[in-house]
Amino acid sequence: MISLIKLANEGKIEKTGAKPKLPIKVEGVSSKTLDVYRIPLEYLYYNDKNGRISTGIAEYEGKINPVSDTVDSKYNDMVAEIIENSNKNALKRTQKSIEESGQQVYGWVLDDGRVIDGNRRLTALRNIHKKTGQTVYFEAVVLPFSYSNNSERVKVKQLELAIQMGIEERESYDPVDLAIDIYQTTAGEDPIMTLADYARDSRMRLTEVEKYYNGAVYIKKFLEFIGAPTTSYEIIKESKSWSLFYEMGKVLKKEFGDDPEAQVKKNETMESYFGVILYQTHVGVVGNTARTHIRDYGRYIVSTTDNKEFNEDVQDIVEDLSESIQDANVVNYADLTKVLIQEDDKISEFGENYNTHIRAAKNGESVEKFIKSIRDNVKVFQDLNERNGLSGNLHYNEVSTKQLKELQRYMRDLNIASKELFEKYGKEYQ
Is the pTM of this model over 0.90? Predict the structure, then answer.
């Protein structure tokens, strides 16, 4: 394994003369001891644990070995393609800028060549090298850390978050990437931070970090529900369904406790949520409309006494859908849409149940709103009566005879109308 620091000490890697500024305080290093170097591309490799790209390469887990081009270029070529496909326009802009003005922002790499920050710049430089055949260098700070050392890995993650999320100019994370990164960093197979740590280093609110974490939990449960590989995050991205899991996580956390009985109800509701997501995916409801629908589901059904009845009504349909999708061995979004078309009858049956419950719940809410408006108006007149017929600081010496007669007329009309309405309501329930 190469050591960039050793190569630098041997004079084989040149300094640019620039002095980096650490975005956060990191034990063991300081800006004074760090330099920016011109590093040959063949010494570098993409960080497979970087939150921005980890979901894209997750499906290759166990099949690839993160190494530099000096060992095998296949890994870097594969990741470069993922980065390019994720945002081709952004890569074109970066590449054009470097071609015209050179690399303006340095990257951050570890001693063994693992790139902590600068994926797009590295990809653009690789493209320029292929295009021109000229020797191209990646300008970056070399950190004296190893990813294999757990305590140093924590420092690396802190720097990654500070660099990529603590600066406004940085491109926003894809929400699925961010959610999975939060999950993997705080609760995956090898957690290195708490949610509070992540919130602090990323400069996010803890409550928001928790919402993203819960969304990731239900993404993983959904992939299990449909029998897809647990790393098939592209299904969520391509179906544009992230917001549904985000909203789902908020409602389930709010409505259900931690006791065993509540957990049973929570799991039943979770699967009903999955049914709603599959239904919306099938009928092509995405974006703001999909988010509105899932919020309506949480508001009008999950958060009401109707939730139990709805779960019972759709339970068999949801279970049948799960079995059918699992039997189809879904691995990507195309597979999922195909099997949903085949299961159109089940999806339609679920949709009929869903729409029936939603309509009934909304009608019920309308009645409640109507009753509340009447109740509020009655309170107004009760307050008037308690205050001798006037509101606020008004006194009768401020009211003219003409105005008093006008008030009497309104009270008389109100009395007549209320009597007529009372009789109408009485006839309805007799």
Answer: no
